[in-house]
Amino acid sequence: MTNNSQTTPQQTIRFGADRLTIEDVVAISQGATAEMNTESAFTSKIDRGVAFLERLLKEEGVIYGVTTGYGDSCTVAIPTHLVDDLPLNLTRFHGCGLGEDLDRQQARAVLATRLCSLSQGVSGVGHPLLNQIVTLINHDISPRIPQEGSVGASGDLTPLSYLAAALIGEREVIYQGKICPTADVFKELGITPIKLKPKEGLALMNGTSVMTALACIAYKRAEYLAQLATKITAMVSVGIQGNGFHFDEALFAVKPHPGQQQIASWLRSDLQAERPPRNSDRLQDRYSLRCAPHVIGVLQDSLPWLRQMIENELNSANDNPIIDGDNERVLHGGHFYGGHIAMAMDTLKTAVANIADLLDRQMAQLMDYKFNNGLPFNLTGATGERKPINHGFKAVQIGISAWTAEALKHTMPASVFSRSTECHNQDKVSMGTIASRDCLRVLQLTEQVTAASLLAATQAIELRKRDQQLTDTNISPALQAMQQAVLAEFKFVTEDRPLEHDLRLFISRIQQQHWSLY
Length: 518
Prior knowledge:
Layout: E1 2-3, E2 12-15, H1 22-29, E3 33-36, H2 40-58, H3 86-93, E4 98-101, H4 104-118, H5 127-138, E5 142-143, E6 146-148, H6 157-167, E7 172-175, E8 178-181, H7 182-189, H8 200-205, H9 209-239, H10 249-253, H11 258-270, H12 287-290, H13 292-314, E9 322-324, E10 329-331, H14 339-367, H15 394-409, H16 432-466, H17 477-487, H18 500-511, E11 515-516
């Protein structure tokens, strides 16, 4: 069992060259640096878009959001002498976000996703703006972005206004672990605020980059949870003396979902050991064990198409209007609509919540002496006269039920709760950012369930070993390694003790993806 703790990646992600991946965004979020493509094909494409916009302005062309007001105010003409002030007003009147702030990792991911979109070269922004975002990333300056206030079309206007404000030296940023005035940080580091050109405020704010950033982070956490839930299922099977033949290769060959087959294959690998005699007359284990590949497999099978949807959005130009500098056209449309991310996150949060529900049911079996094939009630490690006053994992199992119930409650799809807003101009919206935030909440709750389940499964195996119902020959090398890794930081529960500290430690280990699992 290797330690796979995430450290600050010493890598540089290049923007404006190849397509970015989810992993690239997550790397930036964890500390990787950024650089712009310097090849002439890229730089000249940026220049052509800017030059085309400048010519249109000189010719008094009508451009939405440049020479007109925004949204339903698109019929309001902006006097020529005020065109340069319009983007500044846009950033300022959208400074009304509420709720808790995105954390540093999430805010860095937003910088990466917005930079990727603008680097498609069809948003009419110039090199100074692109380079300013790179500067923020490389100096580890993250805009302070409140989570709430986006309906997901016209993109993430309000939260992205906080990114735009940071580029021009306004509002606040996260720097060295503190929230500081942007102007103070820029002064300390010698960074010059940029002045937004006429289209640049709209280009920064009118897109799907907050929901996409959160989706990238959610994807990687869910991917790891599928693996860890599989590992825990194998541990529970050993602890409860389950039937390992439920995961037979020939059995799964007749239902060929590849993700489901992968989960069954991992379980077979984890259960490769001489099994102890079964203390049960049940031919078939209950569904939470027997059907674990079918539950976890839904998440595993969803990952490829979720990746496709997230990465297509990531590598898109998703503002409005699109500036086609090559053909000298302004294309008005609705690429700011976050429907694909909304659907991806509504789907992912449902798949993840099912993992919480699966582990909740496994834990209910494991701790109930009526169903756990001879383990002590609530997995208490106490013996003798002290056994009656000790309750082991009783309260932890109650907590697991509470966290699971809350996770399940959050699976109501956000994407169907469209609201007409902004004078009915934004009359059908995606709610993609709310879906992404919901998904992260479901992930947090499921990681809590998973941490508790990992400790409980470890306790169960140790109880079997203590009572000489298991030996090392009954446990595969993979599960022995997992057991040792957990016990290096978790003390077997003999006498009752508060387990909050242990739970928080192992939640952080899960979120750090601390163990290399498969």
